[in-house]
């Protein structure tokens, strides 16, 4: 299995990039992982919210190959503890998922189109974090999940 | 009301410090806030987990003034959405809490002593994040909460 984190918009903080990269350097020991940042929609600031979300949805959907499994990261999604999340990932591998794509939306979240086509939602928290910081939280959680699955000393219960 | 974030151990990443500071610069418009990092317990690496947690507990308790209200940040605590968390903070102000202290434990969490004396727990997530990153998540959530209470355009529902 390989995992992609698909995010709308570039990461605008060099600190966040640096923190993500230090985890991403260690992830290949566990899993093939890629962070893919989609370009911002042109003229985004002047678009009505709905139009912006639809344009972002088209961009997201254009990235998916047939057979890819898309999971939306959304605070209204299913919550897991870190151990439960590691088991969730393990189940995906057991079910022969080849490419698991987690997606973080733009500042306004996702359009209904995305929710209808890809109803599976996971929440990192009930709280709303910036769509920029969530990238770091997710990558840390992914690293933690695989360290749990492989019995490495990173996670303390 | 003023709010303190009490954390065990220095923040070891300059990127995290920089991200926290950029939010802390903007917090005084909303609330008097201080991040207070307690020194690491001496010889921590060689102490049994229980002894380390007890030493950290003594350090935490020594920081509290009479009348301070301590809330433990712990993944087993009560969960809020960002809007609910803003209402929680608002209720503290309504109840004339003068000094609200949120506390992040060390790598192994808190000793039972702390839980017995200060049973109020809030969870930023059911997931476990590093006790370093949680500092940033908390400060962002605090900034978000007050921007919600004051009707500022930061949080998108």
Question: What can you tell me about this protein's structure?
Answer:
2 copies of one chain form a homodimer. Chain A is an alpha/beta fold. Helices cover 39% and strands 22% of the residues of chain A. Chain A contains 5 helices and 5 strands; from the N terminus they run E-H-E-H-E-H-E-H-E-H. The first copy, chain A, has helices spanning 14-24, 49-62, 82-94, 112-117, 133-149, and strands at 2-8, 32-38, 69-79, 99-104, 121-123. Chain A has a 5-stranded parallel beta sheet with strand order 2-1-4-3-5, with helices on both faces. The longest helix of chain A is centred in the C-terminal third of the chain and has 17 residues, at 133-149. The radius of gyration of chain A is 15 Å and the shape is globular.
Short description:
Chain A is built from five helices and five strands; from the N terminus they run E-H-E-H-E-H-E-H-E-H.
Characteristic key phrases:
homodimer, 157 residues, alpha/beta, Alpha/beta knot, five-stranded parallel sheet, 5 helices, globular
Multimerization status: homodimer
Major sheet of chain A, described briefly? 5 strands, parallel
SSE sequence of chain A, one letter per element: EHEHEHEHEH
As for the CATH topology of chain A, it is Alpha/beta knot
CATH class type of chain A: Alpha Beta
The CATH architecture name of chain A reads 3-Layer(aba) Sandwich
| Content of β-strand of chain A | 15-25%
Rg of chain A, nearest Å: 15 Å
| Count of helical stretches of chain A | 5
Helix/sheet category of chain A: alpha/beta
């Amino acid at each position: 299995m390989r995992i992609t984190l698909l995010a709308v918009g570039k990461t605008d903080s060099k600190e966040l990039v640096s923190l993500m990269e230090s985890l991403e350097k260690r992830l290949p020991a566990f899993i093939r992982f890629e962070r893919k940042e989609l370009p911002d929609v042109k003229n985004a600031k002047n678009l009505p919210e709905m139009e912006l979300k639809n344009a972002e949805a088209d961009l997201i959907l254009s990235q998916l190959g047939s057979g890819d499994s898309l999971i939306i990261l959304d605070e209204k999604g299913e919550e897991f503890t870190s151990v439960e999340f590691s088991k969730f990932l393990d189940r995906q591998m057991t079910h022969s998922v080849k490419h698991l794509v987690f997606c973080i939306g733009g500042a306004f979240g996702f359009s209904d189109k995305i929710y209808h086509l890809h109803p599976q939602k996971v929440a990192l928290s009930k709280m709303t974090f910036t769509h920029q910081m969530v990238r770091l939280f997710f990558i840390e959680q992914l690293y933690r999940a695989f360290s749990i699955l492989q019995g490495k000393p990173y996670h303390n219960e």
